[in-house]
Amino acid sequence: MTEQKLSIREAINQALDEALRTDPRVFLLGEDLADPAAGVNAVTRGLATAYGTDRVMNTPISEAAILGAAVGASMEGYLPVAEIMIMDFIGIAMDQIVNHAAKLRYMSGGRTTCPITVRTSVFAGTGSGGTHSQSLEAWFMHVPGIKVVYPSTPADAKGLLLSSIFDPDPVLFMEASRLYALKGPVPEGDGIRIPIGKADVKRAGRDVTIISYGLAMSQSLEAAKILAADGIEAEVVDLRTLLPLDMETVLASVAKTRRAVVAHSATTVAGPGAEVAAQISAKLFHELAEPVQRVGAKFTPIPSRASEAAVTLSTGDIVAAARKTMGAVRV
Amino acid sequence: MTVTDTGAVGLGRDQLTTLYETMCTAAALDTRLLNGIKRGEFATVTWPSRGQEAIPAALGLALRPDDRLVTTYRGLHDHVAKGVPLTEIIGEVLGTSVGASKGKGGTMHISDPAHGVMMTTGIVGSGVPVAVGLALAAQKQGGDRVTVVTFGDGATNTGSFHEGVNLAATWKLPVVFLCQNNLYAEMTPVEETMAIQHVADRAIGVGMVGVTVDGNDPVATYRVIKEAVDRARAGGGPTLVEAVTFRFEGHYAGDSAKYIPAEQLAEMREYDPMVTFPVTLLDSGFTRAELDAIKAAAEQAVEEAVRTVLAAPAPDLAEIQLDVYADGLVVTHD
């Protein structure tokens, strides 16, 4: 299979292009999506020109209406891909996702369903402050009926987005704005999918497992390099999907390394790492050499610009947590 | 079908019969459920709409079977009007296996796509954007199907309502926003929550037609809804219809409704459609015996459905973790 080198932005654009081209049920809606603006994140560039503004629909600034419209259209057989420009704005549309999209199948006894995809971007790292920087995946992991996907590489982004669009359930698809320009190999051609609910070992190692996803993945891989310089070989597991969690892959890795660090951009307090750490502890308590460590953002709103880095996850946090799990002596 | 013009009201005999049948079934359903709860025959939650029967009856007459409906927790009358079988409605209200959602939805979440009832919501205002999406799908499909969303006066104060109506007006979607203004948002009178007198005036702000009609008059309400439905079907975009009515019971079964002044209650009794419409029908040539027969048949149908539901098995507990995800996925921490 031939490969191309794409940024995550280009990979997502390719996935949307393939979905629009191959299935008339797919349409996009959101703020500023159509050309020439093509959105704050420029992810949808060229798509309205190629497919028309009835497939790539500009909406008013009305997040509840965007998601409500997606929910309603999906109940009639469409596969809408709705964009919430920046994740912090999703609160306005929370009712449509949490009370409706997630529960329609259940509350109708399977008579109706809601195969929407909600694309949203985490703006952390842009210095935009407390209402434009949050990583809110834990909100959604608490809701039965939806799936939560957060890729960290261009290939994963493309394959997971296509899986999300054609998944029969509602999917929240997270994109980190700081990762949009990240380049990587992506297989060429249509029909290439990454399954939802399968984690991926991004780096093999024997001493400690670093479990991460999304924006924090590149920091985790950096941390692994720093640790390697000290002779500590970290295995890095990319969850890729947060709901459902692929604990099988996580547990297999931790059973081998006996040490685990969960790292994410979301707050450590009640963050996704709490669920992962609790499951590891419950299932591998007797295998663990040290307690599972969790690292993430401090429990404050995100301050703007200069102080942002002081509260968000750093590579150093992951390295320190991994060293802590190594204990005094390795046995 | 023989349609005879009945003079004063201008509707055919069959249409008038349909209106009254729906009203009687809706009223009988409400009353039967309330009585069953009061005497301890079963325990459940309902949000009564006794007094509002004329509006759903008019709506049912104005819609085609393939038209879509989104309604609210106070929507049992709407379900009746759209043709959802009584056993499915009552089965869901009482949470048994014969309910529309196998007993997993409850009173506030009844859906029946076969009859066009796509969603019932317990979140005030949130059905509006979903109806907009159903209408968007109809527009994309290029047919002439219409979506109606019903809600109370309180819903028109939510952000979801304002976002939804604006989007529908902007995109000229085939949807009718039907406000059943019963003068109380839960327990608060309408004048305490709005500075405007007519909910329909909210249409002006988004560039859409708004109409207020006497919601206790099923014929007048039918005409207004029909005009809005025809406009939507013809590509003329959405309409906000405000049908003004009254709720004779509390917000929920068990709410004593002390907040409704006795004088208002007494005055509104005079406009109760279950009292006034039979007078219209008698003036239009129906006999008292005919009207009594329609009412008795409705009550009997409700009673039979209640009996069927009470005899039905409880929901299968093995079902409880099904339908969360399409592929039978069960997420646990085990």
UniProtKB/TrEMBL annotation, chain A:
Family matches, as Pfam families: Transket_pyr, Transketolase_C
Cofactor: thiamine diphosphate
Molecular function via GO: magnesium ion binding; oxidoreductase activity
Keyword set, alphabetical order: Oxidoreductase, Pyruvate, Thiamine pyrophosphate
Entry-linked SUPFAM superfamilies: Thiamin diphosphate-binding fold (THDP-binding), TK C-terminal domain-like
Ranges that cross the membrane: none
Top-level division of the source organism's lineage: Bacteria
Keyword 4Fe-4S attached: no
Sequence ranges assigned to domain Transketolase-like pyrimidine-binding in this UniProt record: 6-182
PANTHER family per UniProt: PYRUVATE DEHYDROGENASE E1 COMPONENT BETA SUBUNIT (PTHR43257), PYRUVATE DEHYDROGENASE E1 COMPONENT SUBUNIT BETA (PTHR43257:SF2)
Protein name, as recorded: Pyruvate dehydrogenase E1 component beta subunit
Source organism of the structure: Actinocorallia herbida
TrEMBL record, chain B:
UniProt xrefs under Pfam families: E1_dh
InterPro entries referenced in this protein's UniProt entry, alphabetically: DH_E1 (IPR001017), PDH_E1_Alpha_Subunit (IPR050642), THDP-binding (IPR029061)
Ranges of residues in domain Dehydrogenase E1 component: 32-316
Cofactor dependency: thiamine diphosphate
Recorded GO MF terms: magnesium ion binding; pyruvate dehydrogenase (acetyl-transferring) activity
Transmembrane helix found in the keyword field: no
Top-level taxon: Bacteria
Record's keyword terms, sorted: Oxidoreductase, Pyruvate, Thiamine pyrophosphate
Gene Ontology biological-process annotations: pyruvate decarboxylation to acetyl-CoA
TM helices/strands, residue ranges: none
PANTHER family: PYRUVATE DEHYDROGENASE E1 COMPONENT SUBUNIT ALPHA, PYRUVATE DEHYDROGENASE E1 COMPONENT, ALPHA SUBUNIT BACTERIAL AND ORGANELLAR
Name of this chain's protein: Pyruvate dehydrogenase E1 component alpha subunit
Organism lineage: Bacteria, Bacillati, Actinomycetota, Actinomycetes, Streptosporangiales
